[in-house]
Amino acid sequence: MRSSRGIIWLSSYPKSGNTWFRIVLSHLLNQSTSLDYINDMDSILGSPMVANRSWMNQSLGIESNLLNQEELNQLRPIAYTKHAKDVQRTTYIKIHDAYTYNSDNKPLIPDEGCLGAVYFIRNPLDVAVSLSHHAKCPIDWSIHMMANEGFSVPLDVNNEKQINQKLLSWSSHVKSWAAASSIKVLFLRYEDMFFNPFDTFKQGMDFLNIQVSPEMLQQAIEDASFDKLQAFEERFDFKEKAQPDGRFFRKGVVDDWKTTLTEEQVKRIIRDHGEIMHAYGYLDDSGKPVMNIMKGYSNEQ
Fold first, then answer.
1. Strand 114-121 to strand 165-166: parallel, antiparallel, or no bridges (unpaired)?
2. Within 10 Å of residue 228's Cβ, how many Cβ atoms?
3. What is the DSSP annotation of 19-86?
4. Which residues touch 201 (CB under 8 Å, ≥6 apart)?
């Protein structure tokens, strides 16, 4: 296991496989034999997700909802640097923010105490569908917001549970983390996690310097299958779901967009994100969607 002290950022645009990876990682770190741990991932990984307002309040020693967005963003890097110094082990923090810079031209995610990042990318055609279900909004809304350079979540900036997270557009989100040259970033595609889970998760664990046997990794992947996660959520609930009456683990499939999106919706997403989709293997050279991607693309920065 990695012995370094500091933060590994687990970054993604929402609904791109971040939680799935965290579940497998938690399984391995906790050496679990059941799914009971998934509502306790914060303690296993060493921190709640970065947007957790109570965690931020405790770290800063003030009520963050009393600050405006500029004031809070100036203090966030201080909180992360302090956390990295205080921890006695590697801590893995989920983040949906784009890799942005504050008004002082310093990154929101400080280099100090940062051990690296894993970035999860998913076909935006499927993200649009999954995001609409997650937020209980029309698909046209999710397509529109994915192209909005000012997109932030939660929509209510005074949300009691989460601080505001600047996503930018889907394309800009991807590009921002790819351009984070001062930290080491591993890109993993959701599609490769789906079609080639063992090799893809192993690539992630190798990057994290987590040594596990093939048998342990395979068992963790099998225990985190969507069928089992859905059954667990149905019986015990999952605390990270956005809506109390919704479901977090809905389908977990690839190419769901084919039977969901209209031709016009597909064209809009390709128009908005075609450059990045092609760069990461989601469009062929003629600009047509690539389906059932069996051969993976990964990129370590």
1. unpaired
2. 15
3. HHHHHHHHHHHHT-SSSGGGGGHHHHHTS--TTBHHHHHHHHTS-GGGS-HHHHHHHHHHHHHHHHHH
4. 21, 24, 193, 217, 220, 221
Is the bond leading into 124 cis (omega within 30 degrees of zero)? no
Residue 183 has a CB neighbour count (10 Å cut-off) of: 17
Give the CA dihedral 146, 150, 153, 154, nearest 10 degrees. Answer: -120
Give residue for tokens 């001062």.
182
**Token duo for residue 62:** 């003030």
Q: Which of 12, 2, 39 is nearest to 176 (CA)?
A: 12
Cβ atoms of 255 and 291 within 8 Å: the answer is yes
pLDDT in tens, 7-57: 999 999 999 999 899 989 988 998 766 666 666 778 889 988 899 999 999
Homologous superfamily of 6-300 in CATH?
P-loop containing nucleotide triphosphate hydrolases (3.40.50.300)
Nearest-angstrom CA–CA distance, 114 and 105: 18
CB neighbour burial string for 21-47, b if at least 16 within 10 angstroms, e if fewer: bbbbbbbbbbebeebebbeebbebbbb
The ranges assigned to domains in the chain are 6-300
**Tens of pLDDT, residues 181-219:** 999 999 999 999 999 999 999 999 999 999 999 999 999
Name the token pair of 7.
């933060």
- Going by their DSSP bridges, the two strands 152-153 and 165-166 should be labelled as antiparallel
Type and span of the H or E element at 191: helix 190-195
Q: How far apart are the first and last CA of the chain?
A: 22
